[in-house]
Amino acid sequence: MKKIFLGLTAFTAIALTACGSNNTSTTNNQNANAETTAVKQVADTTPANTATANVSVKNIIDAYLQLKNAFTKDNSSDAAAAGKTLQAAFENFDVKTLSADKTKSFSDIADDAKEHAEHIGANGGNIKHQREHFVMLSKDMADLIKTFGNGGQTLYKDFCPMANEGKGAVWISEMKDIKNPYLGKAMPTCGSVKEEIKQ
Amino acid sequence: MSRKKKILFALFIVFVAIQFIQPAHNKSVQVLPTDFIVLYKPPQQVQQVLQNACYDCHSNNTNYPWYANIQPIAWLMASHIKSGKEKLNMSEFGNLSSRKQISKLKEIFNQIKDDEMPITSYKMMHQKARLSAAEKNVLLNWLQSKADSLSENY
Description:
- The complex is a heterodimer of chains A (199) and B (154).
- Chain A is mostly helical.
- Helix content of chain A is 63%, strand content 9%.
- Chain A contains seven helices and three strands; from the N terminus they run ααααααβαββ.
- Chain A has a three-stranded antiparallel beta sheet with strand order 2-1-3.
- The relative contact order of chain A is 0.12.
- Chain B has helices spanning 3-18, 36-40, 44-53, 55-58, 73-87, 98-113, 120-125, 133-153.
- In chain B, α6 (98-113) packs antiparallel against α8 (133-153).
C-alpha cells in the first residue's frame, strides 16, 4: 500500500514539474478576429484621420526603436520592458482612424507583430530567443512603415548578412550609423544602410 | 488505526474520489482542411515526426496513453493541451494569415533547433518524441524550405 502511494506521489510530482515549464501568456485568435471585424464596420463609416494615425504609428515606432537600442547593448531585461511597451502600443492603436483597406493591412501586420513583442516581453533573460522574434518583428515593422509612413522622423532600413544564423536580417534605425541589434557588442558595426525613409 | 494510517486512508479516499471527475478528451474525428499536413503535404517522414512529437498538444486530436485516465494526470494533460493549442493549433493552421503562417513556421523551426520543443516532460513519457539527429535534420530542412518558399510569394 505504502509503495503505491509513494509511486503515485512521485508520478504527480513529475507531472507537476512538467506543468511549471509551461508559458502562461495566452493569445486568443478568435477574439482578435471578432474585434477586427467589428472595428472594420466602424471604419467604413468614419473618414480617415491621418493626423491621429500618425501619432499612433509614431508610438509604435518609438517603442520598437527603444527595443532595438536595448538589443544593441545586449540588454535582455530592457528589451523585455520595451517589448511590453511595444505590445501595448499596438493594442492601443486606434484603428478607427483608418480607412477600411488600411485597417485590413494594419491588422494583418499588427496581429503578427504583437505576438513577437509579447514573446520578447515574456523572455527577459533569454536574449537569443528574444532576438529570434526580433528578426520577424523587424520584417513586420519594415512593412508597417512602408504602408503607414515613418511617423514623422527620418528612418533607416539596415541589413546585416550575418544575423539570423547567416541568413541575414533587417532592422529599422533612427540613426545613419550602424549599431547592430542582432550581434550587439560582439559585432556592433556589422551591416549597412539599405534604404533611407525620409520624412 | 494509527495516525499515519488514518492520513493514508484519507488520501486514498481523495484519490478514488477524484477519479470520477474527468476532463473532456481532446479528440476530433474530423481532419479539417485547415490541418497543417493537409495544407502543406509534407513528405511522409516529416508527417510522422509531426504526428508523433507535436500533434498531441498542438492539434485537435490527442493520442492518449493509458495513464491519461488517471487523475490528477488527466487534469494536467488537459491544461498542457489547452495552452499548447493556444500557441499553435496544427489542426487550424490554415485559418492564420499568410504572414502569421510564415512566422509560425519560423518559430517552430527555432523551437526545434534550440531543443525547446518537444518539452522534456513530454519526451520523458514519449519515446517517439525524442527525435534523432537525422529526424531533426529532415524536419528542420523541410520547415526552412517551406518558410522560404512562402516568404518569396508574400
